[in-house]
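Propose amino acids for all 328 sites.
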């Protein structure tokens, strides 16, 4: 019985954490490594990280065979730990209810009520884990969010390169809350959306992606005005908030779902990103392992993730220099 109650409250706590998105780890600095201004040809006056140790030549992992950053995932979503525990609770509580039926008159009423509550609650909890994201209910452009439009593109299996007079860019930089706020503060970025990309499962949920089995990475998709902000500046922001030599890791977040990447929508973006990474590599003794791949279908995250840090009270004012805190 003790194991039964312990399992139930463990699942309840895990479900609550997912629903309200409790803080992940410790406060993360918006600039975890020292930076300095430098000039690399046409990429002048952008900040790049100070290298650790002596410089040496090496191949770009971003241009290597995809084996190094292989995170293809399964084509169907595997059961999560939460789902497995809920299913176990359904089985245990349901079995106990069935056992009490033949001797209903002599059975312990309180035990029947408790098992009935656990059975019903577990059924509802299990059903909720299979619910898909309603993209039409997501934040829209009226609050500078690309989420609803990105959901429409995803439903149409479309990978756009532009929208109206704006261009589309997609990046991954670990926990997606921080990168979104960083990009919201850049003049020329008109709308942002956080979600999941480069995976095998359609319409994934946060819980599924966190399991690491779907192949997705947490990412941000944005609309930007190329007349106001260059793609180089967007790349620079990404590389100033990650250590591009750490595979499947950003800050304290580890796993393929936190791998960093540049996912280009046009040949022009690919060429600019390739040159940028090539010239940035000279600043590191270890190879850059940031993915450089074509953009794939981008699946928006749940609405409580969208503009999460802004909803938590942090400023998205353009050129704001306040530190980005990834827990709201």
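Proposal:
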């Amino acid at each position: 019985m003790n194991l039964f109650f312990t399992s139930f409250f463990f699942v309840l706590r895990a479900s609550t954490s997912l629903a309200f998105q409790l803080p992940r780890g410790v406060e993360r600095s918006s600039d975890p490594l020292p930076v300095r201004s430098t000039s690399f040809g046409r990429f002048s006056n952008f900040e790049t990280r100070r290298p650790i140790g002596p410089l040496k030549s090496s191949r770009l992992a971003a241009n290597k065979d995809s084996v190094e950053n292989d995170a293809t995932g399964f084509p169907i979503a595997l059961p999560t730990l939460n789902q497995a525990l809920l299913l176990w609770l359904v089985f245990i509580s349901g079995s106990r209810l069935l056992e009490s039926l033949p001797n209903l008159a002599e059975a312990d009423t309180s035990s029947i009520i408790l098992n009935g509550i656990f059975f019903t609650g577990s059924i509802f909890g299990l059903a909720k884990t299979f619910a898909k994201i309603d993209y039409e209910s997501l934040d829209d452009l009226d609050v500078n969010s690309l989420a609803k439009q990105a959901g429409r593109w995803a439903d149409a299996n479309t990978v756009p390169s532009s929208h109206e007079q704006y261009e589309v860019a997609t990046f991954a930089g670990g926990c997606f809350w921080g990168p979104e706020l960083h990009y919201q503060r850049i003049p020329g970025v008109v709308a942002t959306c956080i979600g999941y990309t480069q995976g095998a499962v359609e319409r994934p949920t946060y819980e599924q992606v966190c399991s690491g089995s779907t192949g997705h990475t947490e990412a941000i998709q944005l609309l930007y005005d190329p007349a106001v902000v260059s793609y180089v500046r967007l790349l620079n922001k990404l590389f100033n908030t990650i250590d591009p030599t750490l595979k499947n890791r950003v800050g304290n977040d580890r796993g393929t779902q936190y791998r960093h990447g540049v996912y280009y929508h046009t040949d022009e973006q690919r060429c600019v990103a390739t040159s940028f990474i090539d010239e940035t590599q000279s600043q590191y003794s270890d190879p850059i392992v940031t993915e450089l791949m074509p953009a794939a279908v981008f699946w928006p995250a749940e609405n409580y993730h969208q503009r999460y840090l802004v909803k938590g009270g942090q400023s998205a004012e353009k050129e704001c220099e306040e530190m980005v805190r990834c827990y709201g």
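The first strand starts at residue 35 and ends at 40. The longest helix spans residues 109-129.
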